Amino acid sequence: MTRPPDAQLTHIGLFVRDLDAMVAFYGKLLGLVVTDSGDFHGKRIAFMSRNANEHHQLVMVSGRPEDEYSPVNQMSFRVKTLEDLQHFHREVASLGLRDLKPSNHGNAWSIYFLDPEGNRIEIYAGSPWYVNQPYQQPVDLSAPADEIRASTHAMVSKDPSFLPHETWQQGLMERLAA
Q1: Closest CA to 160 of 121, 118, 130, 124
Q2: With contact defined as beta carbons under 8 Å apart, do 48 and 32 qualify?
Q3: Answer CATH for 74-178 from 3.40.50, 3.40.190, 3.10.180, 3.30.70
Q4: Rg for the chain (alpha carbons), in Å?
């Protein structure tokens, strides 16, 4: 079997009701900056990024009707550490956003919530372990990070699929190279 050329997910596009409010929200919460904006087929468009190697990681176009449900299942943003995730958990909680759900996936810790227009967002930090997915338990992200790590390790080490992340990653790299 011939493998296709490498293609990595680099950005997501949203159809929004209030472009200015959504630019302000993603700028404040995630530190994204507008890289370009303008008119697009009679609507307004804004490109945003937090990575100088990516012109945009999020693009939003105005014109979504008020009563239209968001077709986006989820946008996921990875942070480097559990402590970074705890920062975002406090920030999202302070904003009063809907459906805040902290979750422990064994291989990652996450928060899920809805942005101001009802699009589901996940912010997550990887753990040093792997367990088969789906795997989801509640987690108290207000607890000290070392306690969360210790309780997660105790929980996932009992799972028959448990592996150190590096072992799982090496197996995936071998499958990808095949």
Answers
A1: 130
A2: yes
A3: 3.10.180
A4: 19
